[in-house]
Each structure stands twice: as C-alpha cells, then as structure tokens.
Model the fold of this input.
Amino acid sequence: MSIRSALFVPGNSAAMVLSSPVLSADAIILDCEDAIAIAAKDSASLLIKHTLLHLPRRQKEYWVRINPLDSEFFHQDLINVLPARPDALLIPKANGDEWRAVVNAIEKIEKQFGLLPVRLIALIESALGVLTCEKVARDERCHGFLLGGEDFASDMGIVRREDNRELLYARYQVCTWAKAFKKLCLDTPYTDIDNLSGFQSDCEFSASIGFDGKACIHPLQADVANEVYAVSEKQILWAKEILDETERQNVGVFSYKGKMIDRPVILRARQIIEKAKKWGLLR
Amino acid sequence: MKYTPMEPYQYKESYSPKSFPEFKSARQNHAVQRVQSLDELFAKIQLQDGMTISFHHHLRNGDAVMNLMLDEIIRRGIKDLTVAASSVFPVHTSLAKAIEANFVTQVVTAYMSGAVADAVSEGKCLYPCVMQTHGGRALSIESKKLKIDVAFIAAPAMDHQGNLSGRQGRAACGSLGYAIADAYYADTVVAITDTVEPLNHIDIPYICVDAMLTVDSIGDPAGIVSGTTRITKDPVGLAIAKKTVELMDAAGFIRDGLSFQTGAGGISLAVAASLHQKLKEKKVVGSFASGGITGTLVDMFEQGLFEKLYDVQCFDLSAVASIEKNKNHIAISASQYGNPYNPDNIVDRLDVVILGASEIDLDFNVNVTTGFDHRILGGSGGHADTAYGSKFAIIVSKLVSSRISVVVDRVTTITTPGDTVDALVTDYGIAIHPRHSELLEQLKKTTRLPMVSMKELLDIANQLCGTPQLIHPKEKVVALMEYRDLSLLDVIHQCDDSL
Amino acid sequence: MNRPIRTGIAGTLESNDCQVTVEPSHDDTVTIRLESVVKARFGHQIEKAIRDTCDQMQLTGATVSVNDKGALDFTIKARVETAVKRSL
Done:
C-alpha cells in the first residue's frame, strides 16, 4: 500500500461522502471522531457503514477514523464499521501503552463476525504517543503511522508555528520508527487550507525526511500532495531501464552504465514501477 | 397565423451568408415622438388583437417594463397577442397572468423560467410556444419570418433626440445586443426609460425609435446580476474545471489567438478561472472572448490575456463598468453574435465554448430546456449557436447531483443536437464524441486524462442512482424547439403535474 | 420485533441527504410516507430501500416519514437505521 494523500471527510455529511470517490486523494478517511458532534456519533457511524457497503470505491482506499478506546463510542463504531470492510482503521490517540488493549478489542469483534484482520493505522498525536511509538511500530497489527500535529501541540502546551519547527522531533521520531519496521508513514495535516504554496513546502520537507504521504483536510491539498510524494518521471524512466536490463542480463548482479545493480536496486526499481502503475503515472 | 418552425432539422455543414438590410437606416426627417402617459402611448401605437409585441431581457430578473406593459394590455383587454421576448424570467408574473386569461396566446423566446415557464408547461397557453436560440431569434426577425408589430425597448438611458444607451442611468446594463434586431425590424418601436440625459455612446440610434416614454423606474439594478454568475467553491466542480482546461491544452487549443466563450454556470465560470492560470503559465494571449460577459472574463481581458471582448449581454456589474471604459470591449447584436447567415457572426470564429447541461445522451444531444419531468426550466439562449459555431464545444457537469444523472439514455428535449457537441467533462471522466476518434486515441496515448465512453458514464450513474423510471408527458404539445436556422428540432409536451 | 417508544429523527434536508422521522403507531404495521424531489423517477426504489431496512431491523408499529432531497439508497438506509435506533 502506498498512499500519497489521505483526505479526512466528515462521516455524517451525505453530500461529501457521495463526492469522495471522485476526489484525487489516494485514501479517504471517513471520520467518526473530531469532525462529528457527540449527538451525531451514531448517525455518522451508520452512514459510514452503509457507505462502505454500497458506494463504489473506484480503486481508492476507504479508511475510518473511529473514536478513541476510552470513549463511549469506540465499541459502537467497531460494531458498525468493521463488518462493512474498511481498507483500514485509523486509531486516534495511539500510544505504546494502550495499543494492545485497542488491538484486543478489535480482534474480539473480528473473531465475533469472522472477519479477516483489518489494517490498523496509529494516529500519533500525543507526547506519550511520540515517545512510545516504537512499541506500536514493533506490533504486527500496526500497518502505519499518521502524525497529528494539532493534538500533539496541545498536549505539549505549545503554539503551532507556520514553519512547523515545533514538530521536528516528533516527525523524525515517528518517521524513523515507521521506516525501521517497513510501515506506512503519513505526515500531519496542514491547517491553513487557503495557503496551497505553504502546504506544498510543508509536503516537500516531509517527503525529504521520509514520509510517504500527507493527511489532507481539503480536496485541493490532495492534488498537491499527489505531485510531491509521487515518483518522478525521471525515476520511472530509470526504473524501467533497470528492469529491462535485469531481464536481458538474467543474472543476480550486473553492471549498468558504470553502476553495480544488485537485488536492493532491482527491488527499488520494482517499487517505483508499482507505485507509478498504481497512481496511473505510466503512459 | 401564429409563428411556427416548419422544416424538420437536418445537420448542415455551413450556412451561406445572406444580407439583412437595416432598412430603417434610410429613414429621412425622422423624429421620435415623446409621449407623456401610457394612455397617450397606446393611443399612438394602435395595438390590435392578434399582434406580436417584443421585449429584450438585458435587465434580466430586475426588469419592470414587460410587467408594466402587460398590466396595461390586460387593463385594456387586448387579446390574442404573441409575446416575442428574448428571454423570460421569474419576475415576469404579469405575462403569466396574461397567458392564463388569453390576452397572450403565444410566447416566442430563447429562454423561460418561473411562472411563465410553469404556465406554458402546464398547457395554459393557447398556442404552442416557440423556443428559439439567441442567434435564431435574430435571424427570424431579420428575415421577417417573425414579424414584430410593436417592440417595447427598456432603455437605461436616452437622450432628447431619442437615441438609446445601455451604459448610463440607474439601471445600466451595458450591451443592448438582444434588442438591436427588434429596433431595426419592428414596425413600431417604443423606448421606455427612467433616465433622459446626454449620451456618451449610442447603442440604438433614434432613427429606429418611434415613441419614447419616461417612467419612474425601468427595473431593479440588483436583479440584473443573475444568481448563476458565481464561481463554484465545490472541490468537485473545481476539479472538473481543471480537467477541462487540461483537455483544451491537450487538444491544442491553448495557443496565441485562442477564441473562447463560457457560460455563466458555476463550473463554466471556474473553467474561465482555470484558463486564466493556464494562459498566464504558458504566456499565451487569446484573440477574443465572447458571449454573455462576466467579471471573470473582464479580469482576463484587462490583464491582457484576451485582445477583445465581444459582448452581446453583460452578466454582471463589472462587465457593465468595463464596456463603458474599455475600447476593445465591444458590444455586438444578437445577429452579429449568432445568426447563422450573418457572414460576420462571432460564434463561427470561436475555438472553444464551455457549456452546461441538464441532460446529455448517448448521442451527445444536450437538453438545457426542460427537466426530466418535461417541465420547462430554461432554454438554449446561445447554447445551440455556440455549440454549432465553435470548433470544440465542451459540456461540463457533475455526473450525479441529488440522484439525477446528467448522462441519460435519451434526452427529454433536444436543445442542442449531438452533431454539434464535441466533449463532456464530468467528475467521473471525459467522454469525446465518436467523430473525434483520432483525438481520443491521441489523448489516451499522450495524456493521463481519464477518458471514458458515454455508455460507461451512463452505467456508473445507473449503478449509483438506480435505473430511473421513464416519465410520460401528456399528449398536448406546448412548445416547439426551433433550431438556430429556424428548422424544427423537437417538441415539448405538456408536463404531467400530478407527479 | 422492535417497536418504537419515542420519536426518532435522523438526517438533514441538505441536497443528497434525507430526513427520516420514526414515530410509534397504534397498529402492528409499518407505514411509510415518502416525499422526494425525485419521487417520479425513483419513488419505488426509495420505498424499497426504506422497507428493506425496516424489515431487517424487524420494525413494527411505526410510521416512517422520509423527506428526501435526492439521497442515494445507501444514505436512505443509513438515515432510516439511525432514526429507528433512536426511536427504540
């Protein structure tokens, strides 16, 4: 799974849910949590259930952000949403100390309904979450991380800055642990939706330190993220050459244009082509 | 004998130019008679039962003149009139009243909405109405097929000699393009104004005008700006606009000299905004933009992205301001705009036009006239004219809104024949008319544009919405669709209002 | 069987959505009242979506009123299910 952009969509808005399949984001995150008022939690979770059951997903992933373990809605969300087969669940306020309890609750319901294990994405959005994300990364049920900068800043008692410098430690920490265990890693949302060039710089930095993609809170952000986190035309050409040459040479290691080509290089070339294929970048 | 198109529609490659003499230009020693009251006016014009009267729609939903005249007609009991109005809006309630009581027994127009459209759809008008195009209306008047006995022209400003201008006065509306044919060809022309003062620019010369009447107000300036002229904020609409400009680029139209027109719907306007970015990026200068002019196009023109604006109608107040001050913002008549036989018509010089649709079918026929229930909701305006004239007519729309799919098996009413439509851009992909198979192959090979067939779009829509039940209208024909060359394109039946 | 004991309302009157009201009734049937902007085109399908959802939830003794603004079936089902649950 490679995701350049994951767009939050309020789970109780019929119109926004309906338009989600044609938006450019690689993943749609149907939200039961922060975007939904307490009185509408039941309604959102049921609209998400029927959306997952009936709306054609068009090669897009549909994730659900459920309510946290310690809320009264956690269990109801799982019962409604899990049998409708989301592509992943986004677990809010994730941290190493509570991760297993969350997984156990989910596995209980998976067993009850006879479901295959769903992919779990940990939303790291607290000081504890950042410091204990190693434990989550080591867990086999964890599929990836999404960093939540706003809640992290509140937890730290700090004010968000335009350049995101206050997030540096969290970003490097979360991203490096994710990569250490080959997990997906998505960067924090950028809240100024009118400033697309600021959003782009933010994406460029996060891509440069290893994030795979970005959480988006407006559809137009997804277009930008898709460009920034995609593989470039140049990379695709390179990968095609390497793979063609591999086929021709038919040996494990060979030299091409003065460079040694071995298994990790071939693997990287394959990954690039796979991503390009998935995102429709091959002509 | 009521007005009616006769010949059935048949696609024509081209129309050979004809000349339409502006015979009033030859009038000698002409003086405009100033009347002081409606009584004096009606005594002079001798309006008889069965005559044809005309109005223009530059004041759009702010117009007070049509209601004023029809109230007087009802008061005087003049019967069986034909009203030839360039468009009819919800404000025109007196026309609906006049139809229901047979004071007016036929409407000939290019667009109608509101109470009049309901009255016609529900079969309350004695004779079938004729739905024209803007260019077709000019042709029908200039060729004398549609003979206007009295034209009532709302004029935002008039001078003491009787010359008219749309650019001054409290209800300034800019171009008076839709009133020009009426002014030159009607037997009697009455100008109605609320502002008499010296003019900076004459849109209609006094030689056309027979009588002038001053009233307190010809209309509400706030109603001139229509509700549709706002750029969409919907991200899906914006994405459609962006894809449309990419399609224009891939098809080779984004180059110096581009001529362009766009409708005033939310997505159409967003295409103009997207095109603005693209022209700047590629440092391209277009030759002209035309049609109903909006602030979005004025911005592009004032930034040097188009050399000229050809304006048959100002859609908003920034267009009104621009036409007054910019030399290359040029007012044109409906005939210069879209009369197929006018050798200089602007639509024939268009590269690309962006248009809306309420329905488009597998043959690319477009309906912007009726809803799926056969009720009249609008009309061609310049839709069919620009689709015919332009090299590439692109329809833009969301595939599904409120469970209604824009793509249908067969349109309820044909406004614009598929022969003249080239592409449809939706949120679920782009369909190209099969006559452009080479272009389609090229786009598939060289771009990442999501190309689909019309059938695929219909299947997606049916999968989302379910298959709609067909809705049968009643037997009575309430309106005739007249193509821009005055042939009969389709008919509209009375809607079943029990549904 | 599930019988409502109070009025349950769900959904909105925005376009592409619908508002569903479930109320207790005196007999053992489910009465459906549908108002829709697309009733002439999709009335039967919408009524079927409502009926199916009520059946699945084993609803009885209820009046289900739907004011539809062009919602697709999945939205209608979700709103009916929510309103029924809120009425129990």
Remarks:
- Chain B touches chain C at residues 372-373, 401-404, 464-466, 468-469, 471, 499 (CB under 8 Å).
- The two ends of chain B are 34 Å apart (CA to CA).
- DSSP finds 14 helices and 25 strands in chain B.
- The longest strand of chain B covers residues 306-314.
